[in-house]
Specification:
17 strands, Uridine Diphospho-n-acetylenolpyruvylglucosamine Reductase, domain 2, about 20% strand, globular, 8-stranded mixed sheet, alpha+beta, 4 domains, Alpha-Beta Plaits, binds flavin-adenine dinucleotide, Uridine Diphospho-n-acetylenolpyruvylglucosamine Reductase, domain 3, binds D-malate, 5-stranded antiparallel sheet, binds zinc ion, 17 helices
């Protein structure tokens, strides 16, 4: 590999990345022994987030119900407890349900018939995509029927002129990336869970991820949705049009609704052209104010070619080194930054990046760094950021927070939390999408520790509200965060959310106990 020297100072360590390639697809964390039992009597290993939740008076599954679903979905209405195990437990292994039925429809019509039946019978349903959600929203709390989108996995159309992709909701994000990639396009979103998450799950959570800085949120790139409502009505707003001002934009209600208002069965999404030149710089900074200054400079100097600005602290680096045996390609630093540029002219982008790197070097904002242009090297550098989530699961019980904050306060929360918790926590780490003002604050402990949790919550939410932030930037509310939403939304907004829920799902069968706060708290 070429060693590149920028400017007068010798950047012996500022070189083109040479570590070996690694996949961006995450691997599942180890199963951390759940004790046997049913529903809430089977406590999750790390967290008793739903210990106060009571089962609502939904119907329980009868033999007649089972017969109905076996007839409707021959061989796709699964009841084997071993098969259901993976769908009853979330990715973090932090919450568990006790569903006895997993349905795998293939068509919108089948989803419609399932919901029509469940609504009439008063049976509760949890929609599930790739089950990579991080807030306990994708698994049942009690015995809700799991409606999986795994077999709704067909691409319906792709228009190479407009870049509009229309597909079923169960398509895996990475498969869609490959599909549009072959035609020189990219998906407008990318996340560490792309090997498993479904596009319908992405829409249902309004997932952010690593490309939001460049392509914006899904609320802008999703052009149309097909949704099945609780009573089985199919709402088709799939018009693959960039502009459509015909009254209320109803699809927006379902983006980020976490399966509580309808089941997304198909998605139309606008895909950008694949950038022909991609560069990734991995830099080390001595202080967080330097990270912020680098960000400001970077926005000014890289402008339209900047496509990602991510950060991690040294504790995250240690986690990926210790638990995943990844290698830090540069000198140890308190903070690390990933800056991605994407554009249509390699020479132009490299020139811009070169001038920017010279500037951060001469102003001593950056202590050390490396640049990658080859795909395999880029992947290896991205792995250091993307696999933090996985590394954390090897560190013990993870308390995960996903906050939006004014960017100047972003790391102050990590430092305050470190001081607040002292030796009670094993690790308090910070990483995230700095370019979007999104901090991922994660705290680990050797095992579930209720006293530690009580020290974190509501402290973390109060801190966030004081700094005018949001308690969930991109992961949603699910089961774990719903009763803290008042820190981010005023009471009239919460009442309106409940009114919308009652209008679209009067019997409350869709993903109960999720997203909306306890109703009594909003009256
Ligand atoms: P699931 O986990 O199955 O479900 C999530 C929620 O959506 C549930 O409430 C479920 O009921 C509902 N739902 C799923 N499918 C449908 C549907 N078709 N119709 C209606 N409701 C539905 N998130 C980010 O935002 N940014 C990231 O960068 C990011 N990185 C991650 C990295 C890793 C390693 C992991 C494990 C997770 C990450 N996540 C991230 C969280 C998660 O991947 C996203 O929330 C993702 O969008 C969930 O998709 P899924 O198909 O797995 O949905
Ligand atoms: C990420 O950005 O890595 C994801 O949102 C997952 C996480 O917060 O760990
Ligand atoms: Zn994230």
């Amino acid at each position: 590999m070429t060693t590149v020297f920028y400017g007068s100072r010798a950047w012996g360590l500022f070189h083109r990345a040479s570590s070996s390639s690694s996949s961006r697809v995450w691997t599942h964390p180890p199963f951390v022994g759940l004790s046997p039992g049913r529903g809430l009597s089977r406590p999750p290993p790390c967290r008793a987030a739903h210990s106060g939740v009571r089962r609502l008076p939904f119907a329980t599954l009868s033999q007649q119900d089972r017969d109905f679903f076996q007839t409707l979905l021959p061989g796709r209405a699964l009841t084997d407890p071993e098969v259901l195990e993976a769908s009853n437990v979330d990715w973090l292994k932090s919450v568990r349900g006790s569903s006895e039925l997993l349905l795998r429809p293939r068509t919108t019509e089948e989803v419609s018939q399932i919901l029509r039946y469940c609504n009439a019978r008063g049976l509760a349903v949890t929609p599930q995509g790739g089950n990579t959600g991080l807030v306990g929203g994708s698994v049942p709390v009690f015995d809700e029927i799991i409606l999986s989108t795994a077999l709704l996995n067909q691409v319906l159309s792709f228009d190479v002129v407009s870049g509009i992709l229309t597909c079923q909701a169960g398509c895996v994000l990475e498969a869609l990336s490959s599909f549009v990639g072959e035609q020189d396009f990219v998906m407008p979103l990318d996340l560490g869970a792309k090997g498993s998450c479904h596009i319908g799950g992405n829409v249902a959570t309004n997932a952010g991820g690593l490309r939001l800085l460049r392509y914006g949120p899904l609320r802008g790139t999703v052009l149309g949705l097909e949704v099945v409502l609780a009573d089985g009505t199919v709402l088709d707003s799939q018009a693959p049009l960039r502009k459509d001002n015909t009254g209320y934009d109803l699809k927006q209600l379902f983006i980020g609704s976490e399966g509580t208002l309808g089941v997304v069965t198909a998605v139309s999404i606008l895909c950008p052209r694949k950038p022909s030149a991609v560069n990734l710089a991995f830099l080390g900074c001595a202080t967080f104010p330097q990270v912020l200054e680098t960000f400001q400079l970077c926005r000014g100097m890289l402008g339209e070619v900047l496509s990602a600005f991510e950060f991690l602290d040294s504790a995250c680096m240690k986690l990926v080194q210790d638990h995943l045996k990844l290698t830090n390609p540069i000198k140890e630093s308190p903070f690390y930054i990933l800056i991605e540029t994407s554009g249509s002219s390699a020479a132009h982008d490299e020139e811009k990046l070169h001038r920017f790197l010279q500037e951060v070097m001469t102003s001593s904002l950056v202590a050390d760094g490396t640049v990658a242009t080859e795909d395999s090297k880029i992947k290896a550098l991205w792995a250091l950021r993307e696999r933090i989530t996985e590394a954390l699961t090897h560190d013990g019980c993870v308390y995960k927070y996903d906050l939006s904050l004014p960017v100047q306060h972003i790391y102050q929360l990590v430092e305050d939390m470190q001081e607040h918790l002292g030796t009670r926590a094993k690790n308090v780490v910070g990483y995230g999408h700095l370019g979007d003002g999104n901090l991922h604050l994660n705290i680990t402990s050797p095992s579930h520790d209720p006293a530690l949790l009580a020290a974190i919550e509501p402290y973390v939410y109060e801190w966030t509200a004081r700094h005018h932030g949001s308690i969930s930037a991109e992961h949603g509310l699910g089961l774990k965060k719903r009763n803290y939403v008042h820190f981010s939304k005023p009471a009239p907004a919460l009442r309106l959310m409940w009114q919308i829920k009652s209008l679209l799902d009067p019997r409350g069968i869709l993903n109960p106990y999720k997203t909306l706060p306890d109703r009594a708290s909003t009256d």
